[in-house]
Amino acid sequence: METIRAKLAEFGQEHLLYGFDTLPADRQTSYLAALSELDLAYIKKLSENAHVSPTLGGAITPSPSTRASDLTTEETAELTAIGKQLIASNTVAVVTMAGGQGTRLGYDGPKGCFDVGIGIPLFGLIASRIAALQAETGGVLPWYIMTSNENHEKTVAFFRDNKFFGLNPADVFFFPQGQLPLVSTDGKILLAEIGRVAEGPDGNGGVFAALLASGALADMEKRGIRQVFVCGIDNALVRPADPLFLGFFERDGAPCASKSVAKASPEERVGAFCVKDGHPCVIEYTELTPEMRQARNDAGLLTYGDANIVTHLMRFDALKTLCTRGLPMHTAFKAIPHYLPGQGQITPKEPNAYKFESFIFDAFSALDRMAILQVTREAEFAPVKNATGNDSPATALALLRQNGY
């Protein structure tokens, strides 16, 4: 207790022990254990650099890409056959980042449990596509699902209630992503309640550390996995372990590959695939200059027009390396409900605290090269992010119907 008290005092976080004496003995023990695990020096550094965003810098050029529509019929058939053979050889795994809640959709539960109106939840759509590939190739596609502390138990229960959507439970691996404390503008770690620090998921870039810490990476290695498909949960048209994409990846030989779609307009708020100082990267919309957004090539297409749709393939050796590297942290300023000593529960109407998170695309800069396959937006990209309007359940449902659902 004295060691923890001194540690908190050193970093100006003594308030975290407010009300400690009112906690039951078992809660006191677990809370002290949680406090002892806090990396206060790291949290202080994040807080002090909350206003420092990754900057462009360096020499930036558009990433080269291949349009799937430009492949010949023979090429498409050949690459698809290669991909199916890889699946049949049991060397491909699927990772889905599903730590988010459906709050913005007005849904109380894990986003993956949400149904856009098709009669199948987002988890079920991916599961059905995995099952179809397994039936067609005779191979096994182990599925690794990243949850969060907030939705882990509900996600696992949802799969059990739905009998794993027909998949073998032994081939579905759930693992929670890491958490980071939420910090006020004056550097104080917030309390969720007496005896519990307010925390948030550490972003989709946390997938690397979580794969390593959970044993999921070791499980892949034990299975002999060589190609790892990674996607988010909120694209209703995502094609897990797409054989064409796998074959394209295998033929190219790059350590990583990503799918893109052509930006709908210069002002579409999506990240674009680029090359920075000779390494692949994604430049966010807000970081592209107006000139870069508007630039077009000789064919009249947007120069920085390959939009990131969070659909990636990585060779296992590259993934293993990335799992041991740290990523830069991005800061979001949010309105965070919390417990304030002396005042009780506070529900702010305006942003009051920093949330720190890493992004998976920041890992790409550690690689020498990335292959980009540009696919058709209407066939492969139906994001479910907003309750209404663009990228909503309604737009995703329309695209699913357009694709035969």
Topology:
Blueprint: H1 2-10, H2 25-36, H3 40-48, E1 60-62, E2 66-67, H4 73-88, E3 92-97, H5 122-137, E4 143-147, H6 152-161, E5 172-176, E6 179-181, E7 183-184, E8 191-193, E9 196-197, E10 199-201, H7 207-214, H8 216-223, E11 227-232, H9 243-252, E12 256-262, E13 272-276, E14 279-283, H10 290-294, E15 306-315, H11 316-322, E16 330-334, E17 338-340, E18 344-346, E19 353-357, E20 371-374, H12 377-380, H13 393-402
Parallel strand pairs: 2-20, 3-4, 3-11, 4-5, 12-20
Antiparallel strand pairs: 1-13, 6-10, 7-19, 8-9, 11-15, 12-15, 13-14, 16-19, 17-18
Report on this model:
It is a single chain. By secondary structure, the protein is an alpha/beta fold. The protein has 13 helices and 20 strands. The protein has helices spanning 2-10, 25-36, 40-48, 73-88, 122-137, 152-161, 207-214, 216-223, 243-252, 290-294, 316-322, 377-380, 393-402; strands spanning 60-62, 66-67, 92-97, 143-147, 172-176, 179-181, 183-184, 191-193, 196-197, 199-201, 227-232, 256-262, 272-276, 279-283, 306-315, 330-334, 338-340, 344-346, 353-357, 371-374. Strands 2-20-12-15-11-3-4-5 form an 8-stranded mixed beta sheet, with helices on both faces. A hairpin with a 3-residue loop joins strand 17 and strand 18 (344-346). Helix 4 crosses helix 5 (122-137) and helix 4 packs across helix 9. The relative contact order is 0.17. The model has no long low-confidence stretch (mean pLDDT 95).
